[in-house]
Each structure stands twice: as structure tokens, then as C-alpha cells.
Automatic annotation (TrEMBL):
Start and end residues of each stretch annotated as Disordered: 36-64
UniProt-listed InterPro entries: DUF3886
Domain of life, source organism: Bacteria
Pfam name, any one: DUF3886
Protein name: YqkE family protein
Length: 80
């Protein structure tokens, strides 16, 4: 008999979800925190991407004539 009671109690415990155990207020706080962290991560990624683009633009501006000529796909032999 005790075994059946323990098994029934386990089944009842398994039916509870995390939201049921924590309560609505705590669940709402956790969801808000999750959203805030996701937004912060998105802002961080956008800032990092902007920094990379700016750095690439600066490097492009600072290239010497020799570097630009070396990167060029033009071949002077064709225009001879």
C-alpha cells in the first residue's frame, strides 16, 4: 500500500511544471530577464559589427598605393 502511495505522489510531482512550482510572478520575472539578456546580446552584436565595419573602412583608407596596386585585378600587360 505504501508503495502505491509513493508512486502516486511521484506521478503528481511529475505533472507539475516549472511555472507551477515557481509561481506566476517569478516566471514573469525570469521571462523579463531572458528578454532583457537577449536584447543586450543583440545590441552587443550590433555594436561589434559596427566596430568591425569602421575598422575595415579605416584600414581601407590607410592603404598605400603599393597595397592598392597589389590588390588590383588589373594586369598592366593587357594595356601595353
Amino acid at each position: 500500500m505504501k508503495k502505491q502511495e509513493k508512486q502516486k505522489k511521484r506521478e503528481d510531482d511529475q505533472r507539475w511544471t516549472l511555472a507551477d512550482r515557481l509561481g506566476a510572478e517569478t516566471e514573469a520575472k525570469l521571462l523579463a530577464k531572458k528578454r532583457a539578456l537577449a536584447e543586450e546580446e543583440q545590441r552587443r552584436r550590433a555594436a561589434e559589427e559596427a566596430r568591425r565595419r569602421e575598422e575595415a573602412r579605416r584600414r581601407e583608407e590607410q592603404k598605400s598605393f603599393a597595397e592598392l596596386l597589389e590588390e588590383s585585378a588589373l594586369d598592366w600587360r593587357k594595356f601595353k
